[in-house]
Design brief:
Length: 66
Amino acid sequence: MAKAQELDFETHIEKVKDIIQQLNNNTLNLKEGMQLYKDAQAHISIANKMLEEAEFELKNVIEQQQ
């Protein structure tokens, strides 16, 4: 997941959805499941940071217009 930060927000969300489907499949061993869980956490963390940055930028735009 070295290039995960280069992905856009929507792609991070799709990756998490895909991982959830894989985890619900019940065909993974524990090691595979734990790795997918960690990958999902990383995608969620990056997506959350993107949302926080967008919120900050939006607040700045609104303040500048007032």
